[in-house]
Design brief:
45% helix; mainly alpha; globular
Length: 489
């Protein structure tokens, strides 16, 4: 049975957040409860869990994991086009595709805002958890680790998109000038990464391994997830020893045999899965808003809006026999694995199969809230990080982990030799293994491939500008001189 975290509305946080000077970190309440009453109502294990449940649930929103996130992380890249109909801009997804986003673009604002909303919920949890003296101390300690893992993940999203951002590490006091500055003054990229590392190290110390959770807690952040995310954080900073150390600490995971099953509902919580955003489309529905429908085939026989479509460049880049091509891309005119026939008359030639949700027992009902989970961290990426760190540092096994990923994809062992050729091979494997998993844009930026990759895709990447997205103008205006815009915007 799919396990789900049922979110609560932490209504009493109104006392703490509704008067903050920066609305990006506010959480809107639906009613008011005195803090003393809240500490009574939620002063047990279930109450403690509910504070952190609210943080997990932040990722279910349309702007957190679906339309705007796809716009910034995928449609910008050479792996995806805007898709849909030519006249449907998706508000600003045409600008994502053309690399013409500006500080007023909705996707830029929503990704910034929704991550800070989640960070606010994490800070609220971290504020209340130590005060729940009737909850089990071990449960509180674990939940504290979960909240710090989730806060680190959201800051990782922010720093990759915007560079240096405000570090809001506690619930701001409205009357405090220092706290107002905390919410409005951007820290450096290096300071943000250091903060993420500190949170993840604390999470590692507090969290159990995946096997240490009860079935009822399936899907909560684990020690392995914190190690894997910290390895990725080090990857983006070129800390190769840190990558190797953290990857080596990710134990108890393996590759599943059939790559194509990973994104089907049967593949949820597999031996390969390290962390997932969890959805449930039942009654009441608590799924991931619009994730599948926004990317589903459009038009005749379609089931969605048709955005975020695979490029011809991606489709043509796979080696012959690579099973990941057909597992990643829905082609117009094909009959899919579950028997669905995709008309050759759909609006676009290709769609994202990793976002597809099957319903083989009855006609697909077009649920707004996606029923299946989104994979965030997988063991295959741990292997590819190991290979990259070994290759870039000049020490360690490069081809062993690389070939494990290739062999699972139906490919022979790599023939690449030497650091330069192996670097290209690892980058190609990341592209094909992780396509449409929100990494391609960040990968080509961090590895210096963006200008040439965008030129090959018919786009102009401006060095010194496009490495980052603009800070939302709404925030710049609120900061009133305390925060500056990214270069080029």
């Amino acid at each position: 049975m799919k396990k789900i975290f049922i979110p609560i509305t932490l209504v009493a946080v109104a006392l703490l957040v509704t008067n903050c000077s920066n609305e990006f970190i506010e959480v809107a309440p639906t009613e008011n409860i005195a803090e003393a009453d809240l500490l009574t109502i939620y002063n047990d294990n279930d109450g403690a869990k509910s504070f952190v449940t609210a943080v997990y649930s932040n990722a279910l929103s349309f702007s957190a994991s679906s339309f705007s996130w796809n716009g910034l992380t995928s449609m910008t890249s050479d792996d995806a086009d805007k898709g849909s109909d030519p006249g449907d801009s998706g508000t600003d997804k045409d600008k994502c595709d053309a690399l013409t986003l500006d500080a007023t673009s909705l996707s830029v604002q929503e990704v910034f805002e929704t991550n800070y909303q989640g960070i606010s919920k994490a800070n609220i949890a971290l504020n209340y958890l130590p005060r729940l003296d009737k909850a089990d101390a071990a449960v509180v300690a674990r939940l504290t680790g979960e909240a710090k893992f989730l806060r680190a993940l959201m800051y990782f999203n922010l720093v990759r998109c915007y560079g240096g951002v405000p570090i809001v590490d506690h619930v701001p006091v409205p009357s405090s000038a220092a706290d107002t500055d905390m919410t409005l003054i951007r820290k450096s990229k290096e300071e943000v990464y250091k903060f993420i590392e500190t949170d993840l190290l604390a999470a590692i110390a507090a969290l159990p391994e995946k096997s240490g959770y009860a079935i009822s807690d399936l899907g909560r952040a684990t020690k392995g997830a914190a190690h894997a995310l910290l390895a990725k954080v080090y990857l983006y900073q070129g800390n190769w020893q840190g990558v190797k150390d953290q990857c080596a600490a990710v134990t108890g995971y393996n590759l599943v045999a059939d790559y194509a099953t990973i994104w089907r509902e049967v593949g949820e919580d597999s031996v390969e899965s390290i962390f997932e955003i969890r959805g449930y489309g039942g009654n009441p529905s608590q799924g991931i808003e619009g994730y599948m429908v926004s990317q589903g085939a459009r038009g005749t026989s379609g089931w969605g809006w048709g955005f975020n479509t695979p490029t011809a460049s991606l489709a043509n880049s796979y080696e012959a026999g690579d099973v990941r091509r057909n597992a990643t891309i829905v082609f117009a005119g094909e009959t899919m694995w579950d028997g669905r026939v995709v008309s050759p008359l759909v609006a676009n030639p290709r769609y994202n199969e990793k976002a597809y949700v099957s319903n083989t027992k009855e006609t697909f009902n077009g649920d707004w809230e996606t029923t299946k989970n989104i994979r965030v961290l997988r063991y295959a990426e741990v292997l590819l990080m190991q290979a990259e760190a070994a290759n870039e540092s000049g020490t360690g096994d490069v081809t062993g982990p690389l070939n494990r990923v290739r062999n699972r994809a139906g490919l022979a062992r790599t023939t690449a030799t030497g650091q330069v050729a192996l670097r290209a091979a690892i980058r190609a494997e990341r592209r094909h293994e992780l396509a449409f998993e929100h990494d391609r844009w960040f990968d080509i930026v961090r590895t210096g491939q963006a200008k040439s990759a965008m030129a090959a895709d018919g786009k102009t990447f401006v060095e010194g500008k496009h490495e980052l997205f603009p800070i939302p103008q709404k925030f710049i205006t609120q900061a009133n001189g305390k925060a500056t815009q990214n270069p080029g915007y």
